[in-house]
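W.,

You were right to be curious about this one. When I first looked at the sequence I had no strong expectations either way, so I just let the prediction run and decided to look at it fresh. Below is the sequence, 225 residues in total, followed by the output.
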Amino acid sequence: MLLASLVILVNTVAAQSIDDILSKHFEARGGLDKIKSLNSVIMHGRSASDVFELPIHFYCIHQKAFKVELEFEGRKYYQTGTTTEGWTFSPNQPDSVPHQMTQEELQEGLQDFDLQGPFVDFKIKGNQVESIGTKEIEGQKYSGLKLVKASGEVVLYYLDDNYQIFQTIETQRDGTESITTYTNYRKTASGLAFPFTWAYGHSTTQIDTVIVNPSLDISAFKIKK
């Protein structure tokens, strides 16, 4: 009886800890109500590596459609998709036509463009969240959260002192780790905070402009056959 009571107490404390962390995280982003009002976004910026800097553009309707465009030497490369179909286009391809994405690739794209984030209504989405303590990264300590998505995908999140996401670690299908670091958080006119700098591998994306809740037509994300 005593052991059962202790287990219940520990589980309750853990749940409160997660709720507290997420509450502070939502507040740092601008508040849960504002986050839930986020239905679409357009971002313009630059993606740079050691050898190039390319204009990059993101368009997204929350959980409905996404498009990423890169420009290189006057030519556009893109990925675009809706909940049912997606396409990838590179002008370097011999046939110079969009290629259809697999359902797995499409679902990965849609997950990445959950604008409100996987922590919002995570139980309804079928996700699980647990605390994994702190981790020291470059001399600084960050609070860790482990997210297990409904798909089974596992992502580790590390939050900074302001409860903003500093780093995510995902394990790819080949077993390698994909690490993305987010910094330079700024609040837009909407009151929502976004990271304006993303570092991934040897490339860094610098966002210059964020437009919150623009009017976007889902037909613009489809490829006419």
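Here's what jumped out at me. The two ends are 66 Å apart (CA to CA). And, maybe more interesting for your project: The first helix runs from residue 2 to 29.

Coffee later to discuss?

I.
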